[in-house]
Specification:
single chain, about 190 residues, alpha+beta, six-stranded mixed β-sheet, 9 strands, globular, three-stranded antiparallel β-sheet
Length: about 190
């Protein structure tokens, strides 16, 4: 086999592996529109932020074959921490679930799917902590992501950090979909 053929074959295998390793899904929300600012419902209600602190309703489709569970996160890569800010991490969502109702991330957990688990967010509690960019900051790009996973349970302890959950999520993802909502700082 000549060198050009080997490179072409290698590239084709790599592209096939990449497309199989994290296939495209679709994520929609009545409250969050791609590229638009988050509404008051998804804004934190402490630290001088005045929102309703409700996780958005989410529905996902185009689920990859072999999905055994889902995880949902809301992450702010623009937080001035050096490592971003985890606003919400819900894992172990059963494979038969493809939507979360409005406020499923409430601390009381009453609207979570049976078997799902929420990790502590960077505000320090288990549940959804809405957007709350610092005063005078550039817009933050809040990333709401659903991941299809190849395991039923991630095995992350309930007191495990959101970063630990993120590590396990990325090791087991077979598909994902994301909405990004740039939100301006408080005045």
């Amino acid at each position: 086999m000549n060198r050009l053929t080997q490179h072409c074959l290698s590239a084709a295998i790599s592209l096939t592996w990449l497309s199989m390793s994290a296939s495209a899904m679709t994520l929609v929300s009545p409250q969050v529109v791609e590229g638009e600012t988050l509404k008051s419902q998804q804004i934190f209600n402490q630290w001088d932020c005045q929102g309703e602190n409700m996780s958005p309703e989410l529905t996902w489709t185009d689920i990859p074959e072999g999905t055994k569970s889902f995880a949902v996160t809301m992450y702010d890569p623009d937080a001035p921490t050096g490592s971003g800010w985890w606003h919400w991490v819900m894992i172990n969502i059963p494979a038969g679930v493809n939507q979360l109702p409005l406020d499923a991330g409430n601390e009381d957990g009453k609207l979570m799917p049976a078997g799902a688990q929420m990790q502590s967010n960077d505000f320090g509690f288990h549940g959804f902590g809405g957007a709350c960019p610092p005063p005078k900051a550039s817009p933050h790009n809040y990333q709401i992501t659903v991941y299809a996973l190849d395991v039923e349970k991630l095995g992350v302890p309930v007191n495990g950090s959101p970063a630990l959950a993120g590590y396990y999520i990325l090791q087991h993802r077979i598909g994902e979909a994301q909405l990004i909502a740039p939100t301006n700082a408080r005045k």
